[in-house]
Write a structure and sequence with these properties.
Layout: H1 2-6, H2 26-40, H3 84-89, H4 102-121, H5 129-150, H6 163-169, H7 174-178, H8 181-190, H9 228-235, H10 237-249, H11 260-269, H12 274-290, H13 319-326, E1 335-343, E2 345-348, E3 352-355, E4 360-368, E5 378-383, E6 386-392, H14 398-402, E7 411-417, E8 426-431, E9 442-446
Parallel strand pairs: 3-9
Antiparallel strand pairs: 1-4, 2-3, 4-7, 5-6, 5-8, 8-9
Helix pairs in contact: 2-12, 10-11, 10-13
Amino acid sequence: MIAARIGVPHRRETPPDARARTDWDADTLRTQIARLAYQTDGGMGGWDLVSGTTTGKATLMTGHMGEVLKAYAKAGATADTQDPIAMIRLQAPFDPLGLLREASCDRMAGAVAAQMAAARLEGATEADLPDIFYLRNRVPNWLGGIRGIKSFERQPVMPLGVPGLQALAFRVTAEERQQERLHFEIIRHLAPELLDLPFAHQSWHPGLPDAPRPTPIVAAANLPLFGNWQYSINGMPSLRAHLTEFFRSTDIELWDFLDRERLIQRLRDTRFDYFGLIGLLGLTAAVFHAARLVRPDKLGAEAGLDHHDSDTLRRPVAPAMRRKVEAVPAGGALSGHLDLISGAATLIGPARLKVTSSGTISLHGWLFAPEWPGAQPAIRARVMARIVGTTSAETQRDDLLAAGIGHGGYGFTLSFDASDLRVGDIVEIESIDGSAPFSGGRLEVVA
């Protein structure tokens, strides 16, 4: 609407299909990360990267205003002189996996401190420093990395590198950027009818006196908010085994700066949060790139398509990598138990299920991978060849913790509709990672 109002070329786009597999196996992981490493020169970690089929001639720019017009440090900077690492943490975690060696950390902090000192000499306030850091360091890196992914038809790059927008951002104060005043003023002048539309999870800042206050749109409870990488690495112990062997057997200069053994320990013990997963994805892509394990095609490309050579990297995933990864055993044995059935069915004896009404059947239990206590295994209910329900064993249970079963967060509730079952069906509750049904997890449907 704004583009039409000011007369610039524009078009409407149908959003790409955001549905993605949440059960990556080792082959999918290897292929997708190799593509990501190729597209980004190993410089960033993507998140649910969309697929494209047509290579563009040049990067397409759009009118998306992006973070460049508002303060990136939502927490706000204090009036006191800031420590470099604390300043970075206003935007995102510093060293999210905790792998930087001490000397590397000191060098990085020193470089950022020098940038901060130079900005102060140019007249920047302490509140300006996080935004200056973002624009000088993260935007060029991000734009350069994302260009290879987004520069094909239907996936344009956001103009975070446009000098005019960067200059505009600093014509207002840090406080005004945190209020998103530039977004508000642009819309107020060009398309005021958009001001009343609700945002996702926020509204206009109270510091904007003329702004309406639409009720934010809030995500439904228990809705998955992040992508398939998160589900896979937290729910598939075999992927942790593959990554562990890959990191352990890949000798590159990066390990001079990062603690490889600590990373391997993290893969064993940690349930990664949002930022940890982004850090792990970016690190994995960087290791693939350093080991020259790249695949020159698009994410989502079908196997067997012809690939175009790159100006820089020309090697597909090496056969040696395939042999190394496939030689790794799966994620090890799992232990667990189906404890209770509720809803529209009841348990008759140890292994028979009787549907008692229409509605939802819920299966309650736990599943644990002893060799990978940081994982919370993904589970499915299978009826013959049909998958009728999936979930993850991620509910905290005090009884599991008291019994010494990891950190105790391995409980699950797996639900599906009673209409999915017929008398004589066999219901098997199993790990998506490939394990057989566990204790109590094989049920015959009886009349």
